[in-house]
Task: structure prediction
Amino acid sequence: MSTRGRCYRYVGPVDLEAVVRPGSGGCRIGSTTDFGVWIAERSAAELAEPFTFAIGVDGVLLLAPRRSEHVACAGGGVVLSAGEISFAREAGQWAVGDVSNHSTGYCPDVSSWPAVAQALDHVGLRRPSGFTHEVVFRRCSACQEHNIVREGDFVCVFCFSDLPAEWNVDPAS
Result:
């Protein structure tokens, strides 16, 4: 199903990755029917908050409660994207409300949007044309810390070194 883009390995705290067990990932949403069953089981309180999502390397959408770690949602695996997503009813159908690439465990680039769009299209969900909130991640070449770039200020918040213009969080990917 997927037109593969860059893959993202988990780069977050190792103690969070260590507790992930095989088969413990988020709910696989591979079809309109899967989504319909999953969304029908959500409470109003759950629907009031965004959900954690990941896109597996097979291009399938994985969903978990918001306070879930992305690495748990992805079952510890490599992803094509990850972030937070909310759903709303529009004209009697479910649609994506907001969607971001905010995952400090995977730090996906904003260029991961096509994988998200393809997974949402496959499920039949109306969606925005891109992330409604883009998060820019960079790894500092000087101190190796992961940073979120805010307001276009490409300066490390830990050591004040300049951050690279291009995504570099996981040089092995």
User: Anything to note?
Assistant: The two ends are 21 Å apart (CA to CA). The first helix runs from residue 14 to 18.
